[in-house]
Task: inverse folding
């Protein structure tokens, strides 16, 4: 192979994109609003997404550990670092549609809102009962419940499910 043949078949450097005949991008990114990271940043985002997913799984078992924020964090990390893992997360039947709705519309369904309010109330009621002997901790948990309720109630509801 001659030098010019090697140059022609050499892959582009990291971060470079192939140009289409019309001058546009031949490889459109999965999420155009998020630049594709390379090297160390990509691996750090990939690992952060994995840790977030692990914490979300732990959150399904422990009532005081949240699940949804960690799932959303994993989706955000993987949308920037690994489109393949991001697609896998979105393909999960139980959480994928909710994550996609959040990414596209920044809203939750009415059912999800009521489920979140109920689970926060139940888990915090259990924690308040557990720590009932302490003088100030139950009151701190009640304040936390109020803050969480206000945050959840502020989230927009998906328009097609609000009626």
Result:
């Amino acid at each position: 192979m001659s030098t010019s043949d090697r140059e022609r078949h050499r892959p582009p450097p990291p971060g470079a994109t192939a140009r289409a005949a019309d001058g546009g991008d031949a490889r459109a990114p999965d999420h155009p609003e998020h630049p594709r990271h390379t090297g160390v940043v990509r691996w750090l985002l990939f690992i952060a997404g994995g840790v977030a997913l692990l914490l979300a799984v732990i959150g399904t078992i422990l009532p005081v550990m949240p699940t949804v924020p960690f799932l959303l964090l994993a989706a955000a990390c993987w949308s920037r670092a690994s489109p393949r893992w991001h697609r896998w997360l979105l393909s999960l039947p139980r959480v994928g549609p909710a994550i996609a709705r959040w990414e596209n519309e920044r809203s939750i369904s009415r059912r999800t809102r009521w489920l979140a309010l109920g689970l926060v109330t139940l888990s915090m009621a259990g924690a308040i009962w557990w720590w009932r002997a302490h003088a100030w901790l139950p009151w701190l948990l009640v304040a936390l419940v109020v803050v969480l309720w206000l945050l959840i109630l502020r989230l927009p509801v998906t328009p097609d499910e609000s009626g």
User: Anything to note?
Assistant: The two ends are 67 Å apart (CA to CA). Residues 4-10, 12-32 have pLDDT under 50 and may be disordered. The CA atoms of residues 127 and 133 lie 11 Å apart.
